[in-house]
Amino acid sequence: MKRLLILLATVVASFANIVLSAEWHGTKSVWHGADRYDFTIAGRSAIMIVPDNPLPGNPWIWRPAFFDAFPSVDIAMLEQGYHIAYYNVTDEWARPSSLRAGKEFFDYAVEHGLMDKVVMEGLSRGGYYSLRFAQTYPRHIGALLLDNPLVDINELRRNVDWWNDVTAKWSQDSLPPPGLAENAACNISILVDNKIPVLLLSGGADTIVPYERNGKIIKDTYRRWDMPLKSVIRPHSGHHPHGIDNPYPVAEFIYNCLYGQHNLRPIRVACIGDSMTEGVGTDDFSTQSYPAQLQTLPGREYVVSNFGVSCATMLRNGTDAGRPFGYIIHPAMRNVIDFNPDIVIIALGVNDCKSYNWENFNSEFTADYQSLIDTLSMLPALPEIYLVIKPYVQETPQTLSWGFENKGYYEQMCERINTTAIDNHMSVISLTDVFKGEEAHVYAPNDHPNPRGTMLMARAIKAHLLKRH
Fold first, then answer.
1. pLDDT of residue 372
2. Which of 118, 279, 385, 443 has a Cα at 20 to 30 A from 327?
């Protein structure tokens, strides 16, 4: 109902700007069931796809390169009511004349009734143009959707042919190759200062435009200034394919950017885990568990929810006393999905180290962990996910009776979590030493962290959350 009311209000405000598809000119055809118009502006080819039912204000997505390549996001956005545009500046490496030409195309689209803030969709080198256009004309940008984007122009120096092409194109504007002032990687602060939202899709195994030297520059800068950014890393994907299996969370993000719903609520944090998360060892889970204590610590405004399940395992086939306890098949998982968090803290793995779990199913641990990450990362909020390595249980007759024998299984589990984090370019919050120096004072009689122990866990996790900014 709230979304409907917002839409109705926007309709009233934007009515004068709504344009019928008949206003577009050029060669008409059909693209995925919608009207397509091909035309030229300043000698460059242009395309406009018109949705059957445009959203209020006529929002639009502009691809400056590679039209119709990996189009799943565009098709989803078209279905949602967005115009899809293309203007060919593919191979010009954002030289100044191409940016001016892009501004001419932007003005043409706005004059024909499209929203005066465009969503730039940049794949690969198209990402570089999108960044430079946004840095040159920031007030015209509603959001940036960047997919394996080239961010640092100096990456092209690694290939002689590419860099020669950059030099040749810039020389057509009577200019030397781009330097510090023209490099998108050195001007992310312009995007930050103008609060331009970014959705970053990256291939974790991309060797052509490596994430660590390109997309990560944007993510780190945005986190430093607490600016709106969503990042989805396809862990074992290379430079291709672009796109995403489920494009609808992307559509949700763009909608929120253009229609002002990003700041309607505090950041939602979902704490996934076992008994240490649930609060076993404290007198009151609702006030003394580590998620409850995380909620009370000073700093950024969060709404923290505890989704801990005693005995839960990362292993789908994990058990306790013969009963299944795989988290991903537990009803709590449904509750996490319904919560639609912005941040997920995964603190599972200790119960997997019980002899009867690890000895039977350890070969499935990494795949089960990845399956959980894949499910969570595609929630509508596109959450940022942190992997937690919790301290191992202290060795007592009670814990030995639970199956926690010191056979090196915990160390193997930690190694696999670290590898999973590297593959997904995610942060690991290691709590292995969180109780160091206080071991005699942090455990309850049932060998779980007492309120002092859960507070230490909460403080350590909060410190990592604050680092993201």
1. 98
2. 443
Residue 180 neighbours by CB under 8 Å, 6+ apart: 186
Do 345 and 388 touch, CB atoms closer than 8 A?
A: yes
The predicted pLDDT at position 468 comes to: 58
**Which residue, 313, 310, 301, is CA-closest to 343?**
301
**CA gap 344, 113 in Å, rounded:** 40
Which residue positions in the chain have pLDDT lower than 50? 1-22, 469
The residue type found at 444 is: A
- The number of CA neighbours under 13 Å toward the Cβ of 191 is 34
Residue 300 has what pLDDT? Answer: 65
Q: What angle do CA 89, 93, 99 make, to 5 degrees?
A: 55
Decide: 346 and 387 in contact? Cβ < 8 Å.
yes
354 to 41, 378, 389: CA distances (angstroms): 67, 30, 16
Compute φ and ψ for 146, nearest 5 degrees.
-120, 130
Instruction: Please tell me the predicted confidence (pLDDT) of residue 28.
Output: 96
pLDDT at 14: 42
Give the count of beta carbons closer than 10 Å to the beta carbon of residue 149. 28
Whole-angstrom distance between the N-terminal and C-terminal Cα of the chain? 33
R_g of the chain, CA atoms, integer Å: 25
CB 278 within 8 A of CB 308: yes
The whole-angstrom separation of Cα 119 and Cα 89 is 16
pLDDT of residue 265: 67
DSSP state string for 289-343: SHHHHHHHSSSS-EEEEEEE-TT-BSSTT-EETTEE-BGGGSHHHHHHHHH--SE
Task: Give one DSSP letter per residue of 96-121, joined into a string.
Answer: HHHHHHHHHHHHHHHHTT--SSEEEE
